[in-house]
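Severity: low
Component: inverse-folding endpoint
Summary: output formatting inconsistent between runs
Steps to reproduce: submit the following structure tokens with default settings.
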């Protein structure tokens, strides 16, 4: 999905919408997705690590099969509480998400061989990040019927 396609999909998302599943608000979802996109461009850095066999198998299943993003899966840094919102409102969160996607597109246009570390799967290349983002976005946007 391109930044333009995502901008169109989230256009009518409102702060009052309740999730079909999960506990994140629309703004929490958009901010979470923005962080993940920034990870994929190296703008947010995490320590290097070697993925376990279990993590590598999950990577293979998620990126190389038709497997959907599992409902109820927790982010690696999930404390059980929703994080504080970073932006003053949903419109700003929408803008920041689209901006991060534009930066993603530009990063891999300029550096096609760039790899960034994923918090569960280790280093991913452009195609792997594209597959991850597609499933991750589909999962979270489906929380709001998008």
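Observed output (run 2 of 3):
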């Amino acid at each position: 999905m391109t930044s333009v396609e995502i901008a169109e999909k989230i256009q009518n998302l409102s702060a009052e919408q309740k999730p079909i599943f999960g506990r994140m608000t629309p703004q929490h979802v958009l901010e979470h997705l923005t962080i993940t996109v920034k990870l994929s461009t190296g703008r947010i850095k995490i320590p290097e690590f070697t993925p376990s066999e279990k993590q590598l198998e999950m990577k293979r299943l998620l990126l190389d099969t038709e497997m959907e993003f599992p409902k109820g899966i927790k982010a690696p840094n999930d404390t059980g509480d929703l994080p504080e919102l970073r932006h003053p409102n949903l419109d700003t969160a929408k803008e920041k998400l689209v901006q991060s996607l534009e930066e993603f597109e530009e990063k891999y246009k300029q550096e096609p061989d760039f790899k960034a570390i994923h918090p569960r799967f280790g280093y991913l290349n452009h195609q792997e990040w594209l597959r991850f983002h597609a499933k991750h976005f589909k999962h979270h946007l489906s929380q709001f019927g998008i």
